[in-house]
Amino acid sequence: MYKFKYHRTSSLNEARSQFGSCDEPRYIAGGMTLIPALNLRLDRPSDVLDIGHLDELRGIQDDGDTISVGATTRHAEVAKSSVVQSKIPALAKLAGGIGDPLVRNRGTIGGSLANNDPSADYPSAVLGLGATVHTDSRTIAADDYFMGAFMTALEEGEIITKISFPVPETAGYGRLAQPASRFPLIGVFVAKTSSGPRVAVTGAGPGVFRVEEMEKALSGNWSAEAIKDIAVNSDEFASDIHASAEYRAAMITVMAGRAINS
Amino acid sequence: MVKLFKSLFGASGVDPKQAPTTESTAEGSEVSQATGAGSDHVTVSMTVNGEAVTGEVEARTRLVQFIRENLRLTGTHIGCDTSQCGACTIHMDGLPIKSCGILAVQADGADIVTIEGLANGEELHPMQEAFREHHGLQCGFCTPGMVMSAIGLVNENPEPTEKEIRHHLEGNICRCTGYHNIVKSIAAGAESMKGMK
Ligand SMILES: Cc1cc2nc3c(=O)[nH]c(=O)nc-3n(C[C@H](O)[C@H](O)[C@H](O)COP(=O)(O)OP(=O)(O)OC[C@H]3O[C@@H](n4cnc5c(N)ncnc54)[C@H](O)[C@@H]3O)c2cc1C
Ligand code: FES
Ligand code: FES
Predict the structure, then answer these.
(1) Structural domain harbouring A43
(2) For the domain that residue A10 is a member of, what is the CATH number?
(3) Residue A110 resides in a domain
(4) Domains of chain B: residue spans and CATH
(5) pTM, whole model, 2 decimals?
(6) Which residues are CB-neighbours of A237 under 8 A, at least 6 positions away?
(7) Does A89 lie at the interface with B, CB-CB under 8 angstroms?
(8) Which residues does a 6 A CB cutoff place in the pocket of ligand 1?
(9) pLDDT tens per residue across span B133-166
(10) What ipTM does the predicted assembly reach?
């Protein structure tokens, strides 16, 4: 890894103002994405600003109709949270399936959403539940947040502070692991929300997206049967040694069915 | 680099009076406390296997390098160096993590336990003993990580099922054993850890 300067920030304001005064700064939370990337010399920051210790960004809160998860809350904490387990069990299950237990003890929800890996798990839950991303300066609806693989609505230096998830009537997650990386080859998050069914897909390649046709079919009939003949268009999907675009498309229908039955 | 090895006091820790706080390095850059203004050299302090240690490192030094190169605790292995294999697993504040995936300076102030911190003199930790007894290793390269990860599991789930053990080992890769004896060892280690206080 190339040399950089390290700052342990002591508040959100300090982190933001330091970001403004450095050449090529990066925040670090859990480091489960950034450190391997630096190790492989895929990135060369001038300064690394540590926001991982900020208490104001950590923790899970039960707000009644919504659950808020602080940006630096670890995957393991979400998986084991009694609030999340009782109100949105599908979200606890999703968090408990990310990577492995060692990664889950470090990786954070904010880091995952800022990075927006097209195969990451969390984006499907955030989009599938119609959650809201809170930052140090504004709130962003999930539908406006994800802009394609590794792209988000975040401005330079903007910090995710928490994510608020509306509690759905019911929700489920179906995940097919890519055999080598164990990231989802396809992950489908389905939710019956107050504004209707939502179906969000991760892993196909172009970044997380919703499947409107499935949402329509589910609004009259919440069952795997209702969507089993819906074929998703694979034109923009990835084709690689792990799976063809057509296989990925076929697995979306299968995983959506499993998510509904889960 | 001489600097990296400056505070090589082994697991016994560094005399705090001798611990550097602020000074110029060979490159002329400032050394600062982990919490101070940004710097490419930092002084880190943590507890490792019950002893207070302090060292001066480059900001980019990862915890695994600090443990192996500064503290000379070479039981913690590096397999992949990209957070995949788990050979570098240690406990930080009671939880198993991959020490190649965290900067030493991020662990400033933390309580670290490595494989060297488990045995009580000549007496192996029950989990180490279980790996010995049940042939839970062949070449042994993955073993320190396996043992640290296994203890993390049992601390949280004192009676793991075989399925839970296998699921827990997702982040620890073994090229030799086929995992079967590792799973057996962990089940046995969990059983004998019940006798620990
Ligand atoms: C072996 C392994 C397996 C994995 N498997 C999976 C998997 O199956 N599924 C999955 O989804 N993920 C997986 N991951 C990825 C892991 O979940 C992410 O690395 C993690 O969630 C990112 O969070 P972090 O805190 O570690 O981010 P960091 O590495 O600290 O940061 C990542 C990026 O986000 C930025 N950032 C961090 N926090 C914020 C914030 N609050 N506001 C704005 N920007 C921020 C940083 O600047 C950086 O650019 C795996 C990782 C590893 C190493
Ligand atoms: S060396 Fe750390 S996970 Fe492989
Ligand atoms: S015993 Fe050789 S890698 Fe596990």
Answers:
(1) 1-54
(2) 3.30.43.10
(3) no
(4) 2-117 (3.10.20.30), 126-193 (1.10.150.120)
(5) 0.92
(6) A204, A205, A206, A245, A248, A249
(7) no
(8) A 26-34, 36, 51, 71, 98-99, 103, 106-108, 110-112, 114-115, 120-122, 159-160, 182-183; B 83-84
(9) 999 999 999 999 999 999 999 999 999 999 999 9
(10) 0.93
